[in-house]
Amino acid sequence: MFSARLPWDLPPNRLSQALARRNSAGAEVLDLAESNPTRAGFSYPAEEILAALPDARSLLYEPAPAGLLSAREAVAAYYAARGCAVAPDRILLTASTSEAYACLFKLLADPGDEVLVPRPSYPLFEFLAQLESLRVAQYPLAYAEGWSLDAEALARAASARTRAILVVNPNNPTGSFLKRRELERLTTLCAERNLALICDEVFADYALGPDPERVVPLAGFEGALTFCLSGLSKIAGLPQLKLGWIVASGPQAVPAVERLELIADTYLSVGTPVQHALPRLLEAAPILQRQITQRVQSNLDFLAAQVRRQPAAELLEVEGGWYATLRVPQTRSEEEWALELLERDGVLIQPGFFYDFEAEAFLVLSLLTPPAIFREGVARLLARFPDDAPAPTG
Predict the structure, then answer these.
(1) Which pLDDT tens digit goes with each residue over 278-327?
(2) Long-range contacts, stretch 34-39, CB < 8 angstroms, 24+ apart
(3) Domains along the chain?
(4) Staple 225 to which of 94, 250, 322, 364, CB 3.0 to 4.6 Å?
């Protein structure tokens, strides 16, 4: 009696089962997979955040499908501070970036159509697409002293049913940014195949150093029908205050926004209090961003220094975001590495297949982890590789 949109019977994986057993026994866990900033020991500007919420205007229900104008103006100001001129009437608020994807999939595709998603990347895309009765087709990101978009493989992956190309900029978990030459290829392909470009930029404020070849943000890009996604979850480290947005630009942006408003009007999911609070929350965001960037860089520097002493592991290049990827010997599978580290050393990491890495063996670490935990966890992780272990191969 239930739909076939998702495989509903999903048993917990072996790593989740091992973690549950360890937690149940009260055993130590050094969590190097922590992705929730509210649990990572940062000092939030509590006074500013809480003062933004008790607004008497929130007692009045004013349904606005695209979101309150004052909130959309705050988003426009956020982009203006980053050199992008975006009109509030090209912005649509959502309860999250996940909901933004759902709205865009409804807008752009019919059941059975496809969206192209990067590999490796965030594992939720397939579920979001399936809930809209769509399919995902993957295009690879190649690694050779840095990550790059494989334009030829992307073109081959596009079919007659493809409706949009999804880019994560910077990517999660690789931390790689889209480059100018890659954007040119994407623009050409979108024009040739009549495709939309969806650009997820939730980690865009967390670049580790400048690079003139990067293109971020893409808000206001006119080369293709483009939808930029972001929100409070990463920008302000506030995933509990549910608010994201879509910025539409390029050809057909006006009718696209009109149709998105119709979709949003069906749900009216964005709460009024967080919309009124948004201008002040965005003003306070740099306080936490500085802390996150400092910790991410510090943890990454420590990891790089330790890996240089351990030839059996390789740290892949990271340009931004909150994660780092290690390539480790293929003497066992990623799952076996992760299970051994958890069960024997009390260290929780994520295996690469969680993010659809195409080959073995990769381990993903969160750079949000509090430094003391991160350093001890990394020490235990690298101690698992004997000095004579074979170097990882690409």
Answers:
(1) 999 999 999 999 999 999 999 999 999 999 999 999 999 999 999 999 99
(2) 34/366, 34/368, 34/369, 35/322, 35/366, 35/368, 36/239, 37/237, 37/239, 37/288, 37/292, 37/368, 38/237, 38/238, 38/239, 38/240
(3) 14-44+286-383 (3.90.1150.10), 57-284 (3.40.640.10)
(4) 250
